Backbone:
């Protein structure tokens, strides 16, 4: 990287994975006009990410960020730049400097920390077994760790990898995901059966239930929390709502109006309530289907546009002698791509689609630039 | 900031335990603005994505927790009905009382489940909007791939809850004898809109209508307006809905 004009002189160190990050730190150090050596600027790029994360964790308890904190966070990240010698020992920031190889994936160490924590609970899940997709009927993932314990423990951990990492594909939601347990009615049936066999919800123990259920990947932790919920549901039936306005010791007599409600009036009110709720649900289903279709269509259109862009770029790059060839290629590509929605474009006339490319042509050129 | 206002309103009107679980739309919007005016867009994208993922985690955790509860309660309600019907020792009065309680509980339960589906939907809508804003302001290409990922998340896959809702409706139909409703009954019923879960579900329906009313950026990617039938129920709901103090 030629950096004669930059305020920071980059002495590129041995880590090969750092080149991408250097670019970031280039930009960030510009703002502060501080002249530090490359190690600092590298670490500052990383520190921004980790410091930011720590900051957000600390402020995430109310899960809403104040006006100030938002404008502060950039300052915060800037201000946590630390001298290299202090990096290892700095506790006030609570950041960990991950080894250079990890910078590309700064989120994985958090997952590893999770796994270490859940293992400390005395549960030893078989990660390989769990992370493989199990039968569709019982879709579950493993252990949950509470956010609070995570933010405390993470500070002390050095991310020496425990071996298995949570693969994004099986976890479903990318690098930030923690495996979770998702109960189904079938699973619950099996649970209830096991509990009944053991003499009821009061007598049954999590361990016993777990053994009886014989479900792969189910942990005692899951059973324990589920049992707790089950017990609550049985001995405190239908808590209705949690609002203070809704404590009704005797629902039939209590009412917010002065009239005494007859039971048939109440029944009618309930009937009305169901109607409204049904309506809401119906609308929600319609809305969801629409949203799904919109995204599907968007995906398809994007694919078409990209093919067009490729066609356009190839067209520009290609010499005139190969022009006819690429024309034919793209035409073939477009007509062979199966349209998933009802709006089927005419595959034989790519020119018609080129006209529509305009709004996303900027996207295509952006893509092209990114790819270069 | 139309959606933002609606979301805020909805959060205020929703069940107390749920208020913290919604999308931090306002703050994310501010962040997008910050990012677009800052110099280091590419660096910030990772952090923005990180925050979004955090939100998704929040939704997933809450949603699955509620889902688990609903599964348990659903089964329990069925058990309760079964027990009430089987116990011959109950006097007529006691039986009627228990059935009335069950009716109330099951209708509220139905409502809560629908509210969860609504929760899922509102957060999805908010996410889609914030991603759109991000792309628009930063020239990024985050929206499309990211939203594909969101579509697969547990909090968005509400099929199970919808199934439970429908099962509930079947049970409700059995519990509520079909009768002709007298006019006075309807009036009395309408006055009870202000209470409990009923209030929440009505509010949610109204909010949905408002959100879909008409976007400034209506395109073929937008949802059509919500047309509620002009029945007495709906009209009275609109009369009863609280006047928002902005």
Residues:
């Amino acid at each position: 990287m030629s950096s004669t004009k930059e305020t920071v002189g980059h002495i590129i160190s041995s880590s090969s994975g750092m080149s991408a990050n250097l670019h970031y730190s280039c930009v960030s150090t510009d703002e502060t006009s501080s002249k530090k050596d490359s190690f600092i600027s590298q670490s500052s790029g990383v520190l921004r990410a980790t410091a930011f994360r720590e900051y957000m964790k600390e402020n995430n308890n109310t899960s809403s960020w104040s006006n100030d904190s938002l404008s502060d966070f950039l300052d915060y990240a800037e201000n946590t730049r630390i001298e290299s010698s202090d990096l290892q020992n700095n506790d006030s920031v609570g950041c960990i400097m991950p080894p250079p190889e990890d910078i590309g994936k700064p989120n994985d160490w958090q997952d590893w920390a999770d796994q270490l924590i859940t293992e400390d609970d005395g549960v030893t899940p078989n990660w390989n077994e769990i992370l493989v997709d199990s039968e569709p009927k019982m879709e579950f993932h493993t252990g949950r760790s509470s956010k609070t314990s995570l933010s405390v423990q993470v500070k002390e951990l050095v991310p020496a990898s425990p071996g298995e990492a949570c693969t994004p594909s099986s976890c479903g939601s990318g690098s930030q995901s923690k495996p979770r347990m998702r109960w189904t009615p079938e699973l619950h049936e099996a649970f209830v059966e096991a509990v009944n066999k053991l003499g009821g919800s009061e007598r049954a123990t999590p361990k016993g239930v777990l053994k009886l259920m014989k479900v792969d990947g189910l942990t005692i932790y899951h059973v324990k929390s589920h049992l707790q919920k089950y017990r609550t549901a049985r001995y405190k039936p239908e808590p209705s709502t949690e609002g203070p306005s809704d404590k009704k010791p005797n629902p039939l007599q209590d009412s917010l109006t002065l009239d005494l409600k007859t039971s048939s009036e109440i029944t009618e009110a309930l009937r009305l309530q169901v109607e409204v709720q049904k309506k809401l649900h119906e609308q929600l289903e319609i809305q969801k289907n629409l949203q799904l279709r919109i995204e599907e269509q968007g995906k398809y259109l994007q694919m078409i546009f990209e093919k067009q862009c490729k066609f356009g770029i190839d067209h520009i790059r290609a010499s005139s002698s190969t022009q006819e060839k690429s024309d034919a290629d793209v035409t073939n590509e477009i007509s062979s791509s199966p349209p998933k929605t009802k709006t089927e474009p005419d595959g034989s006339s790519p020119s018609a689609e080129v006209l529509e490319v305009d709004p996303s042509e900027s996207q295509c050129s952006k893509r092209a630039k990114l790819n270069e | 900031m139309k959606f933002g206002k609606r979301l805020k309103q909805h959060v205020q009107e929703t069940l107390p335990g749920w208020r913290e679980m919604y999308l931090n739309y306002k703050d994310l919007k501010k962040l997008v603005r910050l990012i677009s005016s800052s110099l280091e867009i590419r660096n910030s994208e990772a952090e923005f994505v990180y925050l979004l993922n955090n939100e998704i985690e929040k939704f997933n955790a809450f949603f699955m927790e509620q889902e688990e509860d609903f599964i348990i309660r659903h089964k329990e309600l069925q058990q309760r009905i079964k027990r009430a019907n089987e116990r011959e020792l109950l006097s007529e009065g006691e039986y009627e009382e228990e059935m009335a309680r069950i009716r109330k509980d099951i209708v509220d339960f139905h409502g809560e489940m629908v509210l969860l589906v609504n929760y899922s939907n509102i957060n999805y809508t908010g996410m889609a909007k914030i991603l759109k804003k991000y792309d628009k302001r930063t020239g990024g290409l985050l929206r499309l791939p990211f939203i594909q990922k969101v579509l697969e998340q547990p909090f968005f896959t509400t099929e199970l809850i919808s199934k439970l809702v429908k099962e509930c409706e079947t049970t409700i139909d059995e519990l509520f004898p079909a009768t002709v409703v007298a006019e006075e009954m309807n009036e009395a019923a309408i006055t009870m809109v202000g209470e409990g879960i009923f209030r929440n579900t009505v509010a949610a329906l109204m909010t949905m209508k408002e959100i879909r009313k008409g976007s400034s950026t209506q395109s073929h990617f937008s949802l059509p307006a919500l047309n509620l039938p002009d029945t007495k129920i709906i009209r009275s709901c609109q009369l009863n809905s609280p006047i928002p103090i902005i």
DSSP finds nine helices and no strands in chain B. Residues 92-138 of chain B form the longest helix (47 residues). Residues 135 and 142 of chain B are 6 Å apart (CA to CA). Residues 239-246 of chain B have pLDDT under 50 and may be disordered.
